[in-house]
Structure formats: C-alpha cells, structure tokens
C-alpha cells in the first residue's frame, strides 16, 4: 500500500460515516468510524464522533472509552471534549469523575456555561452544597436568562437555610420565567415569593 492510500481510505471512511448518520444508520456509521480509527487510532474528530454515536446507540461504556481516550490524547486542548467526558461520566454514575472533568473544562474554557452548570450539579450530587454555589452562580452570569442554574441556586439556598436568598431568586425568575418561579415556589413552599 502506498503512502497516498491511507489518507484516501481515512477520507472515504469519514465520508461514509457522515452519510450513514445522515441516512439514519448509526450502526453503519460506527463501522465506518471503526475503519477510520483502525487506520489512525489518534484521529481526534473520528474518536469524538464515535463516542457520540456510541452514546446515541446506547453503548455508554464504549462512549466513555472513546471520550477518555480523546482527553488523554489532548489533555490541555479541548474543553468540549472534557465537558463531553463529564457528561458521560455523570450518565454512568461516576459523579466525582464527572465533577473533575467539568472542572477541567471550566479551566480550559472559562466561558463554557454548560461546564459550570455540570460542575454545579455534580457537586450537588456529591452533597457539596457550598462548593456547588459558585459554579451555579458563574453559570447564571454566563447565561442570565436560562432558568436551570437559577433553579438549582434557589434549591441550594433553601437547603442551606437561606430563605431570603431563595425568595430573591424566585422573585428574579418571576421576571422572565414565571412558570419556573411558580413551580419553584411550590416545591420550596415559599409563601409569597415573587408575588
């Protein structure tokens, strides 16, 4: 095989994978990506695509394997890869690993609001209320009109015994997400918050 054949084979496998995804054939797309990675096991885009497809087809262990390999190949380069690893670790129930991956993503890309949110949720699941608060606050700074982090912050405040802060957050949510504010008020049993 000459040296020009390898890139052509990789390009063909990549094209086939994209086509099979487009045609709704994820198993065939995975087979094409397997061929691509057999030629070049360090093909970062192919690893990322295969991890995503493995997750989409219900193979969480395979998705995690690829995601871990991807960040091992480029530990300082790609915040999105670290976020994706955190998401998959959380899905697998490895909450401490998820928190570590989300934290790495926030270091690499401080403006990645989803990583801050993931970090906050992971810390909540670990029972680290006070450690969750700054991550969730950072998420609200980056995405001020997304109710999810606000909702979690209100829950942290209520659970920490800071009813005044929980009321303040519910009142804030009332201004742009009244349905979420109403739900939160009912769940936290906050009389009159944001009314």
Automatic annotation (TrEMBL):
<feature type="repeat" description="TPR">
    <location>
        <begin position="79"/>
        <end position="112"/>
    </location>
</feature>
<dbReference type="InterPro" id="IPR019734">
    <property type="entry name" value="TPR_rpt"/>
</dbReference>
<feature type="repeat" description="TPR">
    <location>
        <begin position="113"/>
        <end position="146"/>
    </location>
</feature>
<dbReference type="InterPro" id="IPR050498">
    <property type="entry name" value="Ycf3"/>
</dbReference>
<dbReference type="Pfam" id="PF13432">
    <property type="entry name" value="TPR_16"/>
</dbReference>
<protein>
    <submittedName>
        <fullName>Tetratricopeptide repeat protein</fullName>
    </submittedName>
</protein>
<keyword id="KW-0677">Repeat</keyword>
<dbReference type="InterPro" id="IPR011990">
    <property type="entry name" value="TPR-like_helical_dom_sf"/>
</dbReference>
<keyword id="KW-0802">TPR repeat</keyword>
């Amino acid at each position: 095989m000459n040296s020009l054949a390898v890139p052509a084979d990789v390009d063909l496998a990549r094209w086939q994978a994209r086509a099979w995804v487009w045609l709704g054939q994820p198993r065939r797309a995975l087979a094409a990506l397997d061929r691509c990675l057999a030629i070049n096991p360090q093909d970062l885009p192919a690893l990322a695509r295969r991890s995503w497809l493995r997750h989409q087809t219900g193979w969480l262990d395979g998705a995690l394997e690829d995601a871990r390999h991807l960040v091992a190949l480029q530990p300082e380069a790609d915040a999105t890869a670290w976020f994706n690893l955190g998401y998959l670790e959380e899905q697998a129930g490895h909450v401490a690993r998820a928190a570590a991956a989300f934290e790495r993503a926030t270091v690499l890309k401080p403006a990645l609001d989803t990583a801050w949110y993931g970090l906050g949720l992971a810390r909540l699941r670990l029972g680290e209320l006070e450690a969750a608060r700054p991550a969730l606050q950072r998420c609200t700074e980056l995405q001020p009109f997304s109710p999810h982090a606000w909702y979690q912050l209100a829950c942290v405040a209520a659970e920490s015994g800071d009813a005044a802060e929980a009321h303040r957050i519910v009142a804030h949510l009332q201004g742009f997400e009244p349905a979420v504010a109403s739900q939160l008020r009912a769940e936290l049993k906050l009389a009159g918050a944001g009314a």
